[in-house]
Amino acid sequence: GENVEQHPSTLSVQEGDSAVIKCTYSDSASNYFPWYKQELGKGPQLIIDIRSNVGEKKDQRIAVTLNKTAKHFSLHITETQPEDSAVYFCAASKGSGYALNFGKGTSLLVTP
Amino acid sequence: DAGVIQSPRHEVTEMGQEVTLRCKPISGHNSLFWYRQTMMRGLELLIYFNNNVPIDDSGMPEDRFSAKMPNASFSTLKIQPSEPRDSAVYFCASSLAQSPSEQYFGPGTRLTVT
């Protein structure tokens, strides 16, 4: 089955700096790669996703890149703010009707 | 839209007792997923349904766990008998089956088995 590896497990940055979280996957049939943000005491919230027919997607301060050949994808957060502090999860899926396979999560701390 | 609704939000029970967790998916969504989250194992898929039919239950830990989806707006996850190692946060998520895996999570049920 699909195996999703996520690094780093913890990340601390100063407010205003950029944060990068990287994931790799094993199943070349995977074609959908979402990122979730989980705040304390809440369920994961979808923040951005990318499909295998594009290499990069951006939404304000958040961007995701995908390299299908190397089977890795990354989340980039620019101009970080304290409210970006949370646990971030990457996931991979073969698409419609298939379950998500999650990475182990990255705990991001943005210090003022 | 109310989002995915789960109940109870917190459950504390003694070992050996039956536990039932409930989920109401987003109206119109036809896929439903049950996950378990622990510090050690992260987010694990337990089972998922498409159009009320169980598709993959390979993540269900053992026979003590069972899940049902009697209709499109309700699902239950039951643990009988419960054990301390079942302590975790259980999430329900829903999606449109034809929209590749854009899953929306509920707030979770924190289960503590003593």
Short overview:
Chain A is mainly beta and 112 residues long. Chain A has no helices and 11 strands.
Q: What structural class results from the helix and strand content of chain A?
A: mainly beta
Oligomer: heterodimer
Any low-confidence stretches of chain A, pLDDT <50, length ≥5? none
- Note the beta-strand portion of chain B: over 45%
Envelope shape of chain A: globular
Measured between the Cα atoms of the first and last residue of chain A, the distance is 41 Å
Specify the biggest β-sheet of chain B: 7 strands, mixed
List keywords for this structure.
heterodimer, A: 112 residues, mainly beta, six-stranded mixed β-sheet, five-stranded antiparallel β-sheet, B: 114 residues, seven-stranded mixed β-sheet, four-stranded antiparallel β-sheet, 11 strands, 54% strand, globular
List the helices and strands and how they pair.
The complex is a heterodimer of chains A (112) and B (114).
Chain A (H helix, E strand, L loop, with lengths): L3 E4 L2 E5 L4 E7 L6 E7 L6 E7 L4 E4 L2 E6 L4 E6 L8 E7 L8 E2 L3 E6 L1
Parallel strand pairs in A: 2-11
Antiparallel strand pairs in A: 1-3, 3-8, 4-5, 4-9, 6-7, 7-8, 9-10, 9-11
Chain B lengths: L4 E3 L2 E4 L5 E6 L6 E8 L3 E9 L2 E4 L8 E7 L2 E6 L8 E8 L8 E2 L3 E5 L1
Parallel strand pairs in B: 2-11
Antiparallel strand pairs in B: 1-3, 3-8, 4-5, 4-9, 5-6, 7-8, 9-10, 9-11
Describe this structure in words.
The complex is a heterodimer of chains A (112) and B (114). Helix content of chain A is 0%, strand content 54%. Chain A is built from no helices and 11 strands. In chain A, the strands form 2 sheets. In chain A, strands 2, 4, 5, 9, 10 and 11 form a 6-stranded mixed β-sheet that branches. Chain A has a 5-stranded antiparallel β-sheet with strand order 1-3-8-7-6, with no helix packed on it. In chain A, β6 (56-59) and β7 (62-67) form a beta hairpin. Chain A starts with a strand and ends with a strand. In chain B, a hairpin with a 3-residue loop joins β4 (31-38) and β5. The radius of gyration of chain B is 13 Å and the shape is globular. In chain B, strands 2, 4, 5, 6, 9, 10 and 11 form a 7-stranded mixed β-sheet that branches. A 4-stranded antiparallel β-sheet of chain B has the order 1-3-8-7, with no helix packed on it. Chain A binds chain B through residues 31-32, 34, 36, 41-46, 49, 51, 89, 91, 93, 95-105, and chain B through 4, 31, 33, 42-43, 45, 48, 50, 55-56, 91, 93, 97-108.
